[in-house]
Design a protein that fits this description.
- An eight-stranded mixed sheet has the order 3-2-1-4-9-6-10-8, with helices on both faces. Strands 17, 18, 21, 22, 23, 24 and 25 form a seven-stranded antiparallel sheet that branches.
- α8 (223-240) runs antiparallel to α9 and α10 (272-289) crosses α12 (300-310).
- By secondary structure, it is α+β, with helices and mostly antiparallel strands.
- The protein starts with 6 loop residues before the first strand and ends with a helix.
- It is elongated and about 95 Å long.
- Helix content is 31%, strand content 25%.
């Protein structure tokens, strides 16, 4: 083995059997070779067989696997720091002791770092057993990315290749008073100070494992511990990056992820004092770092929750989360070209939160889809003319004059099952007269009831029923959900050319109208072939 290994792999270990065995096996079988590899594993007071397993590997791979044992420190920071004091490789790489590497991971990363003079190399990571790993950063390989103009802030784990010269020059270490997130200050500072950061998306370098018992430390931390640790991360980052767009680019992650997760469905069930402390802690961070730019770029759901927390409106915040969990998003109030989400505290002088916190500036297709449902459906026939009479609840109030119910013509498009911002199709079937389309506020104040009679034409077709609603100047197409509502029975209509029509939910529960002739004249071979080819093209 050479005097200086190319890479030292740091493994902080605490009670990770049997995952530890796969982790260590993935290291000693690396294609880079044992002569270029050093593994420094620190047993942080394990009470299972992890310590013995480390010793077994050290005995089997002398000079390659180095094992240190210490009393439990309560987190991965202290054992990682101790390993850094021992590591001697040109590069250092950190791996969770319940995770494992692809066989060529270290060789590929070291080679790329040498070729491009990179101080930090990020190799593609994937989650296993349900572990979520943000993937946008790995869309393509790049020798030089920016912390401020890429998705790197959403990938701040220390599971990267770092040039050890960088680590020692700036004395980078892990804060030992943080039970969770202690790798972020290290990673952020390394990326701020790096001459070049590279990303490799051409191979699966790292497999992040979610344990079957969800005992990873990240999943165990309570709300107040996560809040405290996030505050330390943000304060450390603020000391490295001056206020402005670059700092905002990094903090976008912390507001969208770490801090938003403190205000999820479990918040109302927390003790009152815990909820109060969370709001107080959030208020400090929001006041210090939630710039106007970050606020305006944040979706209305998160923005309102942050605003209520900042104002100390614990009761209103609790009600906003509980109501949305139980009943879905509140309806939008439309006022001209502006739309406001009517969460608790809206225009409440006691809360004192400006309207702009409640204003929807982002796409709201999903929220509209969640608040739109079918109330009733029935066939209405006038002579030979047949129509589908619908009553829909739409999650908007106020100026709903632009709401239209339509039945799209022709074959079902791929977008028929997805809500989105789209124009009303020119060939859509829709109510012909004002008397066939009415709007009225829902009796409970939760949205608007739309009644419409949509004509049905005697053609062979399958059509999806959609609502088109203008919100803040954008027209949204929303598929109509049936939600188990009984559908009117299929029926026959038409004297000259009898047809059959049926209204039913498709596999995703969206309302679809199917029409077809009751019988068709017999066709010759050529005509049947032409019809078959025509249908194939439509598909």
């Amino acid at each position: 083995m050479s005097t200086t290994p190319d890479v030292s792999v740091v493994v902080a270990v605490y009670n990770t059997m049997p995952y530890l065995t796969e982790c260590l096996n993935s290291l000693v079988r690396q294609s880079i070779g044992l002569d270029r590899l050093e593994v420094v594993a620190v047993d942080d007071g394990s009470t299972d067989d992890s310590g013995a397993e480390l010793d077994r590997f050290a005995e089997r791979y002398p000079g390659v696997v180095k094992v240190l044992h210490q009393e439990n420190s309560g987190g991965p920071a202290a054992p990682s720091n101790r390993a850094l004091e021992v590591a001697s490789g040109r590069f250092v790489y950190f791996i969770g002791s319940d995770d494992y590497l692809g066989d060529e991971a270290l060789e590929r990363m070291v080679s790329y770092a040498d070729e491009h003079d990179s101080d930090v190399v990020v190799g593609k990571m994937v989650g296993t057993n349900g572990r979520y790993v943000h993937q946008k950063l790995y869309a393509e390989t790049s020798p030089d990315i920016s912390l401020y103009a890429s998705s790197l802030p959403f990938t701040l784990a220390n599971t990267k290749l770092f040039r050890r010269e960088l680590v020692e020059k700036h004395k980078l270490r892990f804060p030992e008073d943080m039970p969770v997130g202690s790798d972020q200050p290290f990673t952020i500072e390394a990326c701020v100070r790096a001459r070049r950061i590279s990303v490799l998306g051409d191979y699966t370098y790292y497999y992040a494992v979610k344990r079957g018992d969800a005992s990873n430390i990240t999943y165990r931390a309570d709300h107040l511990a996560r809040l405290r640790c996030t505050a330390k991360i943000m304060d450390h980052t603020a000391a490295l990056i001056e206020a402005g767009p670059q700092r905002d680019a990094v903090f976008k992650r912390h507001f969208e992820w770490e801090l938003s997760k403190l205000l999820l469905d479990d918040f109302p069930a927390l003790p009152v004092e815990t909820r109060r402390q969370i709001c107080e802690g959030l208020a400090v961070l929001l006041e210090a770092y939630f710039t106007d730019g970050l606020r305006d770029a944040t979706g209305v759901k998160r923005r309102v929750r942050f605003g209520l927390a900042q104002r100390g409106a614990v009761d209103e915040l609790t009600r906003a989360i509980a109501d949305e969990t139980e009943h879905g998003a509140p309806p939008f109030l439309l006022e001209g070209d502006r739309a406001f989400a009517s969460y608790p505290g809206f225009r409440d002088a006691g809360v004192g939160l400006d309207d702009l916190w409640y204003e929807a500036r982002e796409t709201v297709a999903g929220r509209l889809a969640a608040g739109t449902k079918l109330e009733s459906a029935a066939w209405e026939q006038d002579g030979d003319e047949l129509g589908l009479a619908l009553k829909l609840r739409v999650g908007v109030t106020g100026d709903t004059s632009s709401a239209v119910v339509a039945l799209a013509q022709g074959a079902m498009p791929k977008t028929a099952d997805k809500a989105g911002a789209r124009k009303l199709p020119k060939d859509a079937l829709r109510p012909k007269a004002a008397g066939e389309f009415t709007r009225e506020p829902a009796g409970d104040g939760e949205g608007t009831l739309l009644s419409a009679r949509i004509p049905v034409e005697p053609v062979r077709a399958k059509r999806g029923v959609r609502v088109y609603v203008d919100v803040a100047g954008t027209t949204y197409e929303i598929p109509v959900r049936t939600e188990g509502l009984p559908m009117p029975l299929a029926r026959r209509w038409g004297r000259t050319t009898p047809h059959r029509v049926a209204a039913s939910p498709n596999p995703k529960g969206r309302l679809v109208i199917t029409t077809a002739p009751l019988w068709e004249p017999k066709l010759g071979v050529g005509a049947r072939l032409r019809r078959t080819l025509s249908r194939s093209k439509r598909k």
